[in-house]
Amino acid sequence: MQQTWRDRIADIWAHAATMAEGDVVAAIDELVAERTPDDAEALFEAAGARDYAGRETEAEPLYRSALNNGLDAALRPRAIIQLASTLRNLNRVDESIALLEQQLHEHPDDEWTGPTAAFLALALTTRGDPTLGASVALMALANYLPIYQRSVRGYAAELVAE
Questions:
Q1: Which listed residue, 36, 46, 92, 152, has the most CB atoms within 10 A of its CB?
Q2: Rounded to whole angstroms, how far apart are CA atoms 84 and 70?
Q3: Where are the alpha helices (DSSP H) in the chain?
Q4: 63 and 47 in contact (C-beta within 8 Å)?
Q5: pLDDT tens digit string along 15-46?
Q6: Residue 107 binned pLDDT confidence (cut-offs 50, 70, 90)
Q7: Nearest to 97 by CA among 77, 57, 127
Q8: Cα–Cα nearest to 43, from 28, 23, 22
């Protein structure tokens, strides 16, 4: 049985830890070349490979192109998180925070709430707001606690009320 394009991409990512970063980029780029230059999913994968390799300045425009070219709903939240993380690493923290806050507004209570909040907490801490970052992280974490949700939410709110 022949692997699909997505399966071949997933295979590269499954073995990325055993590969040199440049080899990951080259392998992803080889598959990206099979798609049209405006293919949103291919642009997302090219961006992710560069991000993985620490080449954030190359990753940023590719993430933006992926988002602008209609990245599907399954990948769009990941691309926003990854772009925001890249922006934070490029010391463009306010842009990162704005993207993540918008995503939390759009995904207030779904599978993207926790991951988005985690990266927002990192960005807030990078900006110099560790208390607000802790509050955001605790509010998101409360959703996953089997008990003490109300207490953790209350304490998280107290952190920023003072």
A1: 46
A2: 18
A3: 5-15, 21-32, 40-52, 56-68, 76-89, 93-106, 113-127, 130-142, 149-161
A4: yes
A5: 999 999 999 999 999 999 999 999 999 999 99
A6: confident
A7: 127
A8: 28
